[in-house]
Design a protein that fits this description.
Elements lengths: L1 H20 L13 H11 L4 E2 L10 H20 L5 E7 L16 H18 L7 E5 L18 E8 L1
Parallel strand pairs: 2-3
Antiparallel strand pairs: 1-4, 2-4
Amino acid sequence: MKKSIILISAMAIMISIISCSKEQVKQPGVADTGSAVVSASNAQLAKYPVTGFAYKSSAIEPMKWSNWAKIAAPIVSGILDKLPDGYVMEVRGHTDSRGPEDPEGDKPGNLKISKDRAKAVYNALAAQGLKTNKITYRGVGSSEPLAGAATDSGQQRRVTFVIVPK
């Protein structure tokens, strides 16, 4: 009985020492304190894609852009103001799956078209007076299809926004 009590006491002391002496180690891939802001911002931005691009075009339809700007630009501006240090808003251009990803012959390729779409929206945001040092752009071609739509559908031709590390 005495041995059991001593053994249990020793184990309790050892567990206490180990748990008190351990340092908090940041796990890789776990976001910092800004993660809640980033997650909330990404969820909000996902609701406001720029859509309606013609096949192989990066031209923003003026009427659709005007409607988007009235609704989404103030939201984007607010998100930019609250961005944690080390993060930027990335404007991502997308294409449907028709055509090659890389240039082939006289075809510019989906990556170039998607980058041109992202850049067009980036420039339009800059023209709205949004803080361009907190915004970047990138084309992803057809590599990030919209769920629930055919990959060769016009719905895939869009620009989305996501908060990413610099």
